[in-house]
Amino acid sequence: MQTFVRSTLAAVAFAAIAFGVAGAAMAPTTLTVTMKALNGSGETGTAVLTDTSAGVKVVVSLTHGDGAQPTHIHAGTCDKINKAPEWPLQNTADGHGTSVVAGVTIAQLLKSSYAINVHKSTSDLATYVSCGDIKAK
Q1: CATH code for the structural domain at 28-134
Q2: How many helices (H) and strands (E) does the chain have?
Q3: What pTM value is reported for the model?
Q4: Which one has a higher pLDDT value, 18 or 27?
């Protein structure tokens, strides 16, 4: 009986440790991305990502936003970004934009390198004004 109890306690302890380690490695359900100004724009701020049942919600808040600015999630990092957008977001308008990317989670985004990129305007997509790497803190 004592052997059975010890074995059971050992199994429970192992499961608790394993769950703790696995729990610590789980992706967050909310992630704040620091948005950095590019090309002298002064457009800094954050993009807050939140997992929802519909997909990942992205709320962009920038200082000095100017009009409607195309915003996307791109593969790569701000230093080495793939110019083709992976997922379009709603335009950031006067520094603010909210989007939901259907079928995507923060965990999926963290499995590879992605960045949120804001363009100067719909007529000047080549000029990037703000960018933030999506990465675990």
Answers
A1: 2.60.40.200
A2: 2, 8
A3: 0.79
A4: 27
